Amino acid sequence: MLPTERRRKIIKVLEENDFMKLKSLQENLDISMETLRRDVQKLTKEDLITKEYGGIRIKKEQNGESMIEQRLSLNLAKKEEIAKKATNEIKNGDCIFLDSGSTTLQIAKNLTYHENLTIITNSIPVMLQTLNQGHTVISIGGKVRKSEQSITSFDFLFNFDRLNIEKSFICCSGFSLNNGVTDYSLEEVETRRRILQMSKINYLTADSSKLNKTVTIKICDFNELDILICDNELNESDKEKLINEICII
């Protein structure tokens, strides 16, 4: 296993378990303790994990949200699947909003062969990805969040009232039938709420690992969305319940 792949796996294991003892992690990865210590040192320098007595923990913001760098490789196959479905919903000439998040970044990567798009975004990685694709890219101005590499502002959003946003692709940290769609950051939530009011068609892009997960702040209920784009790992029971609330592709 290549070092980069091994470190991605460490991040994935920590995302799933929060804290791991080095001995348990060594057995999980089936590598030597010396190799593991080198990886831990590298990830600590990159500010992705923190060392604690007897083990390591994934680094998070105070609100509990993991940083976007950590999420880029987590459930990547699911995010790529969602991105392909989302790309099929986007037509040449559309004006779209791409939210900040690792899933919408995968959507951005798939827009190379589209023509004449107007892409509105608060995501710095999405901006960088789409700048050389020949589209018009519009950034929401405001405060930069380092952990999410996003731009948030309540006031600047009102400058976009005259834009005809046809489709918005929104991310979240969790969604459930009982509690709707939720996220960690109030600033991100306010941005999303405003965009939901402005866009004609609202898509929630969320992989199946976020189902039945509820975090700090509510973004919206399902009736404020039009379509859920998810991967194919939703079980039939959950899918049947969700279909009563929202269209799923």
TrEMBL record:
Domain HTH deoR-type intervals: 3-58
Span of the signal peptide: none
Chain coiled-coil ranges: 26-89
PROSITE patterns given in the database record: HTH_DEOR_1, HTH_DEOR_2
Xref: InterPro entries: Carb_Metab_HTH_regulators, DeoR-like_C, DeoR_HTH, NagB/RpiA_transferase-like, Tscrpt_reg_HTH_DeoR_CS, WH-like_DNA-bd_sf, WH_DNA-bd_sf
Keyword Transcription regulation: yes
A GO MF label: DNA binding
The species this protein was found in: Staphylococcus xylosus
Keywords (A to Z) from UniProt: Coiled coil, DNA-binding, Lactose metabolism, Transcription, Transcription regulation
Protein name listed in UniProt: DeoR/GlpR transcriptional regulator
One Gene Ontology biological process: lactose metabolic process
